[in-house]
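tl;dr need the bound structure. longer version: we got a ligand (2-oxoglutaric acid) that a collaborator sent over and nobodys looked at where it sits. i said id run it. heres the input, straight from their email, havent touched it
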Amino acid sequence: MTTIRLVDIRKIGLGVPEPSRDDLLNVGRDIVDSFSSTGFAYLSNHGISQQLQDYTFTVAKGFFDLDTEQKLAYERFVRTGYTGYTPIAGDNSTNATDSAAGVTDLKECFDLRCLEDACPDDVAPQLGPQLRRIGTACRQLSERLLAALDAALGSGQLLTSCHRRQLQPGGWTVLRLLHYPAAGGAAAGRCQTRCGAHTDFSTLTLLFQHGVGGLQVEMSDGRWISAEPIPGTILVNIGDVIEVMTSGRLRATNHRVLLPTSEPARGTARQSMAFFVQPDQGTTVAPLDGDPRYQPIDFNSFIQDKFASVYPTYKESDWKC
Ligand SMILES: O=C(O)CCC(=O)C(=O)O
């Protein structure tokens, strides 16, 4: 049975001041090996402390527990720009078939695009500082992972050099807090999923799950396997960018979070956090081997199209970069 591999990245984790070239290559190969079967890997000994993760989830819950009007004052792309709050059913990962059937995602989110972006300091004074702390750690870890992948894929410094602006002006990388409210009884209404099946439009995604599982990953034969949280690990998966770069040798895998059908799981809220590592503005992503089956992607246009497909009310002109 296919399972998602656990890769020990101690030798390139944040506990190491500067990983050696050999360690980057060896760990990178292990990660690529896992990606080639499932598109995902669990990373252990990564160096992002549990305390930092746990406190981020505590602060996030404090924000999501606020009144809807207080959160909507920071609504993403409406009151703010790329950083901000997305209400329930405001961003639907759900595929076209489900979307035609009126299925929406029962989730709310808060995204941070730049470390210096304004956060809801008036209603959640801890949120901004905490997001900046964990965002900085995620950025440092993703730089190590990109260097390891560059070594393993033989792409020189390509991945490293087109992700230099993570969480800075000119970057598309984003840190997202997710909250899936309890859906006991009729609370779910027309929302019938937590997060619809999708591939990420990122290069890589670091995913932190706070205790409650539910994430599923689609295998190449159409079976869905669980990606339950494993204490002490971070899940990493590849997105559409790596699929194009590797001409499909590594595939961005569909994943989803279903709404549990039975109690008490259905009545239990779920929290997660995703760090979407995305190329800097102005990047064109092309297959490393020039495979003509994969057209180069202008990432600026690509991400705008993706926003338009997941945000029902998105218009590029609504916000400034
Ligand atoms: O919450 C999760 O576990 C998955 C979230 C996810 O796939 C996404 O936001 O793209």
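gonna send this back to them w/ a short note. The CA atoms of residues 30 and 194 lie 31 Å apart.
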